Amino acid sequence: MRFLKRIIGQREFSIFVIVVAIFIIMSFTSPYFLTKTNIHSLVLALSVTAIIAVGMTNLLISGGFDLSVGSVVGFTGIVAALLVKKAGMPLVLAIIITLVLGALIGLFNGFMVSKVGINPFIVTLAGLSLFRGLTYIVNRGQQVAQLGDAFNSIGQAVFLDVQLPIYYALLFVIIGDVLLRKNKFLR
Questions:
Q1: Where are the domains of the chain?
Q2: What percent of the chain shows pLDDT beyond 90?
């Protein structure tokens, strides 16, 4: 009984109840909602959002926000694709370069807010517009296709009947949870 009270008393339990309620409502609304294919599609689509959310958690906990994160993700994704396709760069090197690029963009935004003193809304709104525009300019509004099996396997490879991005999201969520619970600096 104490165990049950402890679980119900946690903040996360209310989120769980809301998710279950949504699942129940949607299952009555559509007979296809609780199918294996739909659940897999939902989880796959939410995996990228989950990874981004883990990264945004510390910022939100500290009272900050970042409107530019989606545009930065899109920009660095296009840069990675172009480095592989147009520059013929090895995939691992392209990923490392774009991770560093994303980190530098974040550092620049943080510098503009914390050291220069510009309002975070203005900095991140400007970043949203800038990187959305740069993505369009760099790629001329075109999709990047035929990137090769190695690049495609990052998001399309399957292990135990589940696509890899779902495993990535689970890994990031677990690591983020452990770091937030065990590391005083991150709290």
A1: 1-43, 52-152, 157-187
A2: 26
